[in-house]
Amino acid sequence: MATAHERREMLKSVYEEAQGCVACPLHRTRTTVVFGSGNADADLMFIGEAPGANEDRQGLPFVGQAGKLLEKLLGEIGLDRGDVFIANTVKCRPPNNRDPHPHEIESCHGYLRRQVALIEPTVICTLGNFSTKLLREDTTGISRLHGREEVRTIGPRAVRLYPLYHPAAALYTPSTLETLRADFHRIPELLSLGAPPQPEPIEPVPEPAEPEPPPRSAEAAGAAAADAADAMDLPEAVAPPVADAQLGLF
Questions:
Q1: What is the average per-residue pLDDT within 156-183?
Q2: What is the CATH number of the domain that holds 121?
Q3: R_g of the chain, CA atoms, integer Å
Q4: Does 39 map to a domain?
């Protein structure tokens, strides 16, 4: 099992990979990839829909009005952004804030699953329809599911999945805000339950053994050794390490 430090470093590697992602057309219109931010060892994770204009400029999720409401609700239960991890179903802003298309969500799903596997949250709050339907693998809408927790397996990890209304939906609708607030105040109770039982790890299938290569002549062996020595003299391009602040990690 990986240590917290190892998981953090692997999360940075996933971030670096996402920065160059061209798996869907959203890479053509984005300003930056909004990977996610927060505590890399958080027990509580929030997953929204997609970055908006503010997020696209700053490279961080939930920095607009919906983000301010999320922070306010966190404060009401004694938490702040530094205690949780926040991400979205897609990492790039859809043009004109349109809904993400199914193939765009699918293209990003691998990044999200790896985030969940490395952060190891106990509770995941899905914010709105898109993340709820994606992680439940079901088309039931948020209006029927909000505030109803269940245990779900996401990738290798079982979590307590807790659907909530998206804060953006509550900004101008008092009744939705009160529902969201009431559901939010149950989060400490869910966290106190701890992680649900985890599935048994799947044993990797061993690779077939490579056949032994035939013996080489002394002349061929000498030539191979010379080629290896030449290769070792070539400079290697080394990417600068990703700083925690660059990724928004606490």
A1: 97
A2: 3.40.470.10
A3: 22
A4: yes
> Which structural domain, as residue segments, surrounds residue 84?
4-193
The secondary structure element, H or E, covering residue 120 is none
92 pLDDT tier (thresholds 50, 70, 90): very high
Q: Helix H segments across the chain?
A: 4-19, 53-58, 65-76, 102-119, 129-136, 142-145, 167-170, 174-184, 187-192, 218-232, 244-247
Q: What is the mean pLDDT of residues 180-184?
A: 98
Average pLDDT, the chain: 87
pLDDT of 177 over the 70 cut: yes
Contacts of 129 (CB under 8 A, 6+ apart): 49, 141, 142, 166
